[in-house]
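Running low. Got one?
___
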Amino acid sequence: MSVREELEALERQFLGPNAALSENSRGRLRPEPAQPGEVRTCYQRDTDRIVHSKAFRRLTHKTQVFLQPEGDHYRTRMTHTLEVARIARTITRGLRLNEDLTEAIAMGHDLGHTPFGHAGEAALSEVLGQPFRHNEQSLRVVDLLENGGRGLNLTYEVRMGILGHTGDRIPETWEGQVVRRSDQIAYVNHDIDDAIRAGILTDADIPRPISQILGGTHRERINTLVCDAIAYSRAQGAVGLSPEVDGALRDLRTFMFQRVYRNPVAKGEESKAKAMLQRLYQYYCDHPERLPEDMAPQLAAEGKARAVCDYIAGMTDKYAVDKYTEIFIPSGWQVRG
């Protein structure tokens, strides 16, 4: 018996009835023969493929909420991803679900995010004339864009968990639904922490009815939401939060939109970022020969608009600024005497 088979046997023994067992996966887009001496389950392999991808590494330099903040402790897409993964694994463990599947979905859920956060999404939506949705782009990254156009060939459960972490589609697996809820828990709470660091909020600004339910500090809010998710899901037989806690989380999200997500301090540079990305988009549509060589297959198969969109969406904040500077800002020169 291989190590992988031993791990699959342990899943059957210890995981609960709602867990997605590795051996029951619906498989990959392209079947892969079993490797002799395999030590990883299919979901463990998916996590490794994601973590070793270029798109994952780029998350370090992509904005979460605050565009190019002055300070080392503001969240990026990478730190957000890690916080989602930790919250999701805690809830998963409490529900006796498959932590490996949860981790893979969490690590891949934001791979399709644009530079400059939701400002980048808005910019691409305007130039495309249709909504750019980062969850759909994340699926496109793992299915097609990574690995020289071959994608990562992930399992169905991970792919649908990535697609369903936001939007109308709800993942079939409990693990995918846990990541969807953990994403909400993570971003609202860490955005409060960043807003406090930026001087936009204090803990005392959180409306008292919300604090009375969720707690008055970052630690208390996270603990309340995680514990409630475990207790309610176990009692109800479905992933969710109790009505009181769920209502408080929705109210907290509304408060954050009013005080932070639309705050001019947090969003002061968004119009510049949008204009920059849209100008880059138009430039590359006019000059597709300037796209990197590895974009050639998409350019040939799907045309300029889609290939340029993929290229822009994959940029980090700094890379987008550098390319804009290179193309549109005159460089210095000197007279030789």
About this structure: The radius of gyration is 22 Å. The first helix runs from residue 3 to 14. The chain has two domains: 3-269, 271-328.
